TrEMBL record:
GO terms for cellular component: membrane. Heme binds at residue 475. It is found in: Membrane. The keyword Transmembrane applies. Gene3D superfamilies: Cytochrome P450 (1.10.630.10). Keywords: Heme, Iron, Membrane, Metal-binding, Monooxygenase, Oxidoreductase, Transmembrane, Transmembrane helix. The chain crosses the membrane at residues 12-29, 36-57, 63-88, 279-297, 337-357. PANTHER family: CYTOCHROME P450, L-ORNITHINE-N5-MONOOXYGENASE (EUROFUNG). It comes from Clonostachys byssicola. It holds the Pfam family p450. This is Uncharacterized protein. Its cofactor is heme. GO terms for molecular function: heme binding; iron ion binding; monooxygenase activity; oxidoreductase activity, acting on paired donors, with incorporation or reduction of molecular oxygen.
């Protein structure tokens, strides 16, 4: 028995330990490793396997001896990373949870229930600039979204956007690709193009209203009907198709988004999983969405719709004389964006209905201002203060991207009105928390649509509200989404009284809300009762 106990020699421990420290300080400390996560992980696994195999060849009974250099290496590497991040990192003077400074894996654990909006909000008490990761600052300041997106700064998109890699499109990290694609999108959603889309949006809303009417007077969960309507609008305006299975399409998009909630803090983990084990957990949903999109794009390429659609502009761009490789590749990437970004309107509308049902006095105010207004005229609806106040106030409390939209500071760093954030740091400005700041809003937890028109004194700092983002990142689908939201509210409220069925937990949809790029509310059960003429 005594023969089998091996005493490690000093070089067996010291050499791998030094190697670990050297690899950290000489290599891993530099640049971004997000896209190489799979290579780094499999490279390590291969070397560890070789060390073990060598030991098995030399002395199989002492196989465990191979664990000593491996452990020493990992101790050197991870120890060096931890000490550096805690005591020497450029962000060491920013306040924040200590474990966050050491590793994002802790944050990953905390968002296992897909509630990143609440996790980040729980760190708000550290102050306006909080270190929420080794190389990450979260900004809880009314001007946060502006610090990230204002036209005058040179921030770029963060590693999160690599989730869409290798497709390219308007969500690309490369500023030149983004500018080129945003131009195509802005043409596809211009006021002139909108004239083509408005009547089609209206047709889908009427179909939705018919489905509501079939259920009038009885309690039911509205979520799926709303997701189906939003999907139909996107399929029609995006690709000129009206014959798709709405439930199947809405599920393809909704399921794909469920991988995001739990992985927001650690994009490299998602890349690692997608590369090494794409068949596990919910990852196949993500790949399926790409397959689904390819199918739709191919079908669209073979057909010629009667009117304009967003795909017309994407295809036209590939047919320019000077069209480059990016234009062709982006046809698929931007078609995927159409589904992912376009799906935002569904949950926002669910949350608008939630707010209306919780604060029913707003329904009467909207009905009052709708009197005599032709709600088929989008300009007339755009001019109604309370309908727009309700939409804006809902998106203050329940923003489209509760924590989404991180950026990377430029190499020279970023000056946030006197607070300097060093270069190449990931920055967040969580709209969920910023929309609830006392410094920005009077009575921030209350639903008061009037703060957006007749009571401007309730908005202390307007910069805290940028639901469509701003500058060069402004939402390209804003006009489409606004037209859909305003008209659906007008159609429903002129015909129905909306309320919670007796006995249901009125806050259920909010309590179960998850943050997965867009908000995902829990089931919203309502009753629609037809108003007497
Ligand atoms: C209530 C509904 C919506 C809200 C609140 C919303 C909000 C946003 C926000 C905050 C961004 C910036 C994301 C970032 O920082 O990277 C964005 C980008 C974008 N959205 Fe929307 N969105 C909505 C609906 C839509 C719809 C229906 C479409 C398509 C038809 C769409 C298309 C886009 C596109 C293409 C971008 C990228 C713009 C760029 O980076 O140049 N969105 N949206």
């Amino acid at each position: 028995m005594g023969d089998l106990i091996a005493t490690p020699e000093l070089p067996q421990v010291v050499a791998p330990l030094i190697l670990g420290v050297t690899l950290h300080l000489g290599l891993f400390i530099r640049g971004e490793w997000n896209l190489y996560a799979a290579t780094v992980a499999s490279g390590h696994a291969l070397v560890f396997a070789l060390v073990l195999a060598r030991q098995l060849l030399i002395a199989p009974a002492l196989w465990y001896v191979s664990a000593i250099p491996i452990a020493a290496y990992l101790f050197g590497l991870l120890g060096s990373i931890s000490v550096y991040r805690l005591f020497f990192h450029r962000l060491r003077s920013f306040p924040g949870p200590r474990l966050s400074a050491v590793t994002k894996l802790w944050h990953l654990w905390k968002v296992r229930n897909a509630k990143n909006h609440l996790v980040l909000d729980s760190w708000r008490h550290y102050g306006p600039f909080v270190r929420t990761g080794p190389n990450e600052i979260t900004i809880y300041h009314p001007a946060g979204v502006e610090y990230l997106n204002a036209p005058q700064n040179s921030n770029t998109r963060s590693d999160w956007y690599d989730l869409l890699y290798p497709t390219v499109g308007v969500f690309s990290r490369d500023p030149a690709i983004h500018v080129a694609r945003a131009k195509v999108w802005n043409k596809a959603t211009s006021p002139a193009a909108m004239k083509e889309y408005v009547h089609r949006i209206s047709d889908h809303i009427m179909k939705f209203e018919t489905a509501i009417n079939e259920r009038a007077g009885k309690p039911f969960v509205v979520n799926d009907l709303i997701y189906d309507m939003s999907f139909d609008i996107i399929a029609d305006i995006g690709f000129g198709t009206t014959d798709m299975n709405s439930r199947e399409g809405a599920n393809a998009v909704g399921n794909a988004l469920t991988i995001i909630g739990q992985t927001i803090p650690v994009p490299w983990m998602t890349r690692l999983a997608l590369s090494l084990c794409p068949g596990v957990w919910r990852l196949p949903y993500w790949m399926n969405l790409f397959g689904y999109t390819i199918g739709i794009v191919e079908k669209r390429m073979k057909s010629k719709p009667d009117g304009l659609d967003v795909a017309s502009f994407l295809i036209e761009d590939t047919q320019r004389e000077d069209a480059d490789k990016i234009s062709h590749e982006a046809l698929l990437g931007d078609s995927g964006v159409m589904f992912i970004a376009g799906s935002t309107t569904g949950p926002i509308f669910i949350l608008i209905l939630y707010c209306l049902a919780r604060f029913p006095e707003n329904m009467d105010k909207i009905r009052e201002e709708l009197r005599g207004v032709d709600y088929n005229d989008p300009n007339a609806l755009a001019a109604l203060p309370h309908i727009n106040g309700v939409i804006t106030e809902t998106m203050r409390l329940f923003p489209a991207g509760p924590t989404f939209g991180s950026r990377q500071t430029p190499p020279e760093g970023l000056d946030c009105d006197g607070v300097y954030i060093p270069g190449n740091v990931k920055i967040f400005a969580p709209r969920w928390s910023i929309g609830r700041l006392e410094e920005a809003f009077e009575d921030p937890h209350n639903f008061i649509p009037e703060r957006w028109y007749s009571k401007p004194e309730l908005v202390k700092d307007k910069r805290a509200h940028a639901p469509w983002s701003l500058g060069r990142y402004t939402c390209s689908g804003k006009r489409i989404a606004q037209a859909q939201l305003r008209l659906t509210i007008a159609v429903l409220l002129t015909k129905y009284k909306i309320s919670f069925p007796p006995g249901v937990d009125e806050m259920h949809a909010e309590k179960l809300l998850e943050d997965q790029l867009t908000p995902l509310p829990g089931d919203l059960e309502l009753v629609f009762e037809e108003l007497k003429a």
